[in-house]
């Protein structure tokens, strides 16, 4: 069943008028028929199964048949601090981190990043937002991960309260595994942050800055992952370890 | 340091003549200089650090300075049965499964696969082989995963001895987690097989065939992954669970 996030204010009655872009997609791309069932999501955790009705040549409304709480969201809210990198790779990270269950995404730039200024990417935000929303719909998420403004690495490491876990995945860390870090503190952990470096990695100074502000230097294991692989592996493994009995 | 797999027969002495394609890459793409150090790999688990010497306008040889055993290989040999899908996505799976530590890759086709005949993809093998080799070099693997010929799903499920674990990741499986499957049997497990379905998933008949031949129906968790995400998640999580203390 096709899934669509709509603005929360649309969910006021059992008959929901669909926004023009959703109606266009249903009509022109998906070619759904009158009476077909779709799933509407309010982005605060509820899903509404509804039948579509073509009301005129352009408009569609949806008749809600049942609603339920989406139970696919992870118990722990993971904020992903992702280093800006070349377009395709970054978009891929946005999509995959969303599928894997990230709660928020914060693009960052650091010493060795390809992108050196957050303002340079602001024009990409509508496209990125769309990638994230589509990935959230496709992977049956209950919420769309929040895309924050870009931050400098040195500002990013200062964020996040010290009562959450903040994981600094670093290729020069050889000892401390995810299991060692998470196991003692995972009961009831409600938030975690993960930082992923650029292609050239973080410098020693950057690593020192992160650990001095409470980030925990952690290894993803023996094999060397590309940036985008490290991003997806870190979300998947963190949520796996936290869910594990 | 740049890493290159060479044919085993090249490693007969401490001065190793490099094959023409490796020499070309060093000269024209990487532009390494006389005396630069590279790492040569014999694809059976040993690495050789060596200095390059430009012997004439076209040839390069490498002087071995030290050798060591690569310790990055997983203890468990994972065979990935990957459904053939559109080009870009399939190549991406080859690259990522290699980075993540797969031992062998077997392209398969099933009821709902885009590709319906293994012969149609044989011409792509040289390119696929190259993608796998480059990913193995970049991720510091000790071996290049073996790329097998394509197989029909119904033949693929018959492979693999019953004393290994054979995981059938299926979106309709809701109960049995990776942890539940692997934990009781993971001590000393030396081989495992993983099967990943096409975009349309496996049919109920296919699932029945797999489980009746000893494959264990397993879930990757609550969120719905795209095919390529399921492929990488399944290798990463299987190796994580097996390595976990």
Describe the structure.
The structure is a homodimer of 245-residue chains. By secondary structure, chain A is an alpha/beta fold. Helix content of chain A is 30%, strand content 25%. Chain A has helices spanning 20-29, 87-100, 125-138, 153-156, 178-182, 204-212, 227-243; strands at residues 3-5, 15-17, 37-41, 46-54, 60-69, 77-83, 104-109, 146-147, 151-152, 165-169, 191-196, 216-218. In chain A, β4 and β5 (60-69) form a beta hairpin. Chain A starts with a strand and ends with a helix. The mean pLDDT of chain A is 92. At the A-B interface, α2 and α7 of A face α2 and α7 of B.
Let me know the average pLDDT of chain A. Answer: 92
Measured by residues with Cβ under 8 Å of the partner chain's Cβ, the largest interface is: A-B, 29 and 28 residues
Oligomer: homodimer
Count the E strands of chain A: 12
What is the rounded distance between the termini of chain A?
A: 32 Å
Order of helices and strands of chain A: EEHEEEEHEHEEHEHEHEH
Helix proportion of chain A: 25-40%
Shape, per Cα inertia axes of chain A:
elongated
Q: Give me the Rg of chain A, rounded.
A: 20 Å
Question: Spans of chain A of 5+ residues with little confidence (pLDDT < 50)?
Answer: none
Look at the helices and sheets of chain A and give the structural class: alpha/beta
Q: How many helices of chain A in DSSP terms? A: 7
Q: What summary fits the major beta sheet of chain A? A: 7 strands, parallel
What percent strand of chain A?
Answer: 15-25%
């Amino acid at each position: 069943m096709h899934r669509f996030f709509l603005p929360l204010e649309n969910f006021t009655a059992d008959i929901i008028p669909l926004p023009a872009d959703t109606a266009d997609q249903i009509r022109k791309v998906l070619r759904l028929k009158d009476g077909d069932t779709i799933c509407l999501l309010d982005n605060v955790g509820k899903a509404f199964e509804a039948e579509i009705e073509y009301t005129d040549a352009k408009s569609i409304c949806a008749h809600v048949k049942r609603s339920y709480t989406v139970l696919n969201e992870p118990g722990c809210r993971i904020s992903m601090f992702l280093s800006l990198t070349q377009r395709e790779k970054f978009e891929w990270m946005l999509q995959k981190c969303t599928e894997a269950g990230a709660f928020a995404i914060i693009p960052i730039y650091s010493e060795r990043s390809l992108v050196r200024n957050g303002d340079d990417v602001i024009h990409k935000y509508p496209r990125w937002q769309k990638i994230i929303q589509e990935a959230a719909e496709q992977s049956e998420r209950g919420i769309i991960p929040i895309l924050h403004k870009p931050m400098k690495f040195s500002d990013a490491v200062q964020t996040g309260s010290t009562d959450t876990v903040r994981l600094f995945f670093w290729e020069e860390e050889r000892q401390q595994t995810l299991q060692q870090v998470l196991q003692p503190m995972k009961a009831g952990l409600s938030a975690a942050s993960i930082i992923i470096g650029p292609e050239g990695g973080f410098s020693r100074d950057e690593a020192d800055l992160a650990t001095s502000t409470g980030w925990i230097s952690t290894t993803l294991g023996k094999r060397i992952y590309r940036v985008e692989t490290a991003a997806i592996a870190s979300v998947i493994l963190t949520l796996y370890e936290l869910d594990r009995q």
